[in-house]
Amino acid sequence: MFNRVRNNGMFSEKEYKGKTIEEATKYAEDGGFIVRVTETNGQSIMTDMLDINANRLNFRVRDGFVVDVYGG
After folding, report:
1. Which of 2, 18, 60, 64 lies in disulfide reach of 68, CB 3.0 to 4.6 Å?
2. Which whole number is the average pLDDT over 30-50?
3. pLDDT per residue over 5-16, tens digit each?
């Protein structure tokens, strides 16, 4: 069973982009999302493509700030 998430799971990049990873993570988790960092400073972090989660947000981070966010 999924946790209740903010806006029925809908999100906008502008809600997260430009925030520190700490700020973005807190905002996401307060909204019921699970967070995963998939890239830091241009270096991809290994993830399992079979591990898709409808209430997870994936962050790409540069110098401690979120530069991209996508679901899954």
Report:
1. 60
2. 92
3. 999 889 999 999
In this prediction, residue 60 carries a pLDDT of 98
* CA atoms of 14 and 2, how far apart (whole Å): 24
**Rounded Cα–Cα distance for residues 57 and 13 (Å):** 10
- Is the separation of the CB atoms in 56 and 72 below 8 Å? yes
What's the chain look like in SS3?
CCCCCHHHHCCCHHHCCCCEHHHHHHHHHHCCCEEEEEEECCEECCCCCCCCCCCEEEEEEECCEEEEEEEC
Global pTM?
0.88
